[in-house]
Amino acid sequence: MSLINAVKPLLNSKTATVTLDISANPKAEGELVVVAKPVVGPIPNNAPEELKALCGALSTYLKAIGTPETIEAELYAVVNEQVGHRSDWASRAAALEANIAAGAKKDKGSKGKGGKTTTTKADKSASAPAKDDESDLPPIGGESKDNPGEDDSTPTLAL
């Protein structure tokens, strides 16, 4: 096992970089705190709220606390608990971005012909983001059922 292998499942089309912060646990001698910080690329200016929420969820930190001997297993557990959700979020975000790009390309093509752009009912439903369903978004701060967050100075992302 290694910390690299533990965080590798976090890498996807939207999260191409993960940084790790490793520090001593000030509340327990001999323990470490590892915070995995997924870095999400830029979000388009015209991004729908769902895309912003998905990118926010994908950039939520994951924290593991344990001894040097157990920290890798702790991090594996935290990441594996979230990896299924994160893959779904990345897929949904990629689909939304593809719709934005297709809409922009369609708008440029229509305007270039001197014609007026029109949107049909079918176009609106195809490009509209799905209803915001935040039931599968992680708890704030990347806590898990096995690793509840602690009140410390680790920055968290509020969704």
Describe what this molecule looks like in 3D.
With 159 residues, the protein is α+β, with helices and mostly antiparallel strands. The protein has one domain (3-142). The protein has four helices and three strands. The protein has a three-stranded antiparallel sheet. Helix 2 packs antiparallel against helix 3. The radius of gyration is 20 Å and the shape is elongated. The protein starts with a helix and ends in a 32-residue tail after the last helix.
Q: What is the number of strand segments?
A: 3
Strand order, largest beta sheet: 1-2-3
Low-confidence stretches: 115-132, 153-159
Shape: elongated
Largest sheet: 3 strands, antiparallel
What is the succession of H and E elements?
HEEHEHH
